[in-house]
Amino acid sequence: QYLSKMSFYRNTVWFVKGLQEYTKSGYEAAAKHFCPADLDVNVTGRSFMITGCNSGIGKAAAQEIANKGGTVHMVCRNRERAEAAREEIVERSKNQNVYVHILDMSSARQVWEFANNFSINNTVHINNAGCMVNQRELTEEGLEKNFATNTLGTYILTKALIPALKKAEDPRVVTVSSGGMLTQKLNVDDLQFEKGTFDGTMAYAQNKRQQVILTWEWGSQHKEIHFSCMHPGWADTPAVKTSMPSFHAKMQSKLRTEAMGADTIVWLAVSAAAVKQPSGLFFQDRKAVATHLPLASTRSTPQEEEKLLTMLEEFALKFKL
């Protein structure tokens, strides 16, 4: 009873906050305080890996970075869609340094293989790929698909790239999380959602909470790299339309554009202002924000966070080639 009331409280407080802050009007209000010069940069010679960027905010971020002269490594699952997105990005930016790599982030073995073979000097890594599968579905490796893609894939790829990133100048890791994580308390006892009724939206939000914790932990462990995660707001993207059709239909007129959703990703990836902020924080509209709603009882203990890291490391090693 208490738990269901608490969950109702969290969801209600979160939705009210969302209407105010996560919408297009929320972005427009926040943007009044942006410093336009922050993004007036040329990143020629710097290399950016972006996962899941053949559409939506990932593609918008890739476009913006290419416009600023950056070398972009698009890591996507579908070659045809990725090549089409690449052509468009190159045509609009007149920047030829955009490359496609094919990888299914839900396959831990593939992620390891890709990371081990990726020898290009990368300066900024952007974890954008994600999924929200509404039925409990297992990957070929026997892992629940949301967890495999959003948490384990992100964990393996980031960890594998850290040694090379440490050798780069001004290295950064940006992870696209979600404000939905505010409704979730870390649950290390059911990482693969085997207990109770499966709820894809909840599973996704739980994965996004895990990413926030990972970002904080990595920031504490690897001081040479600037880690951050962020909430893009509620944006009108193909992914939102497919995985949350009723939300999309109801909210369509209030949703942000893809470029608005991508703005903070780009700011964290390229601006000098971003790295003046401490490492490991959660951002919304270019500002570090709280990772818990007031009175929502979503804080986890250091022991639970430690257990998450240990379990992810065990999963990762199990699939290491």
TrEMBL record:
Signal peptide: none annotated. InterPro entries: NAD(P)-bd_dom_sf, SDR_fam, SDR_member_12. It comes from the Eukaryota. It holds the Pfam family adh_short. SUPFAM superfamilies: NAD(P)-binding Rossmann-fold domains. PANTHER family: DEHYDROGENASE/REDUCTASE SDR FAMILY MEMBER 12 (PTHR44656), DEHYDROGENASE_REDUCTASE SDR FAMILY MEMBER 12 (PTHR44656:SF5). This is Dehydrogenase/reductase (SDR family) member 12. The gene is dhrs12.
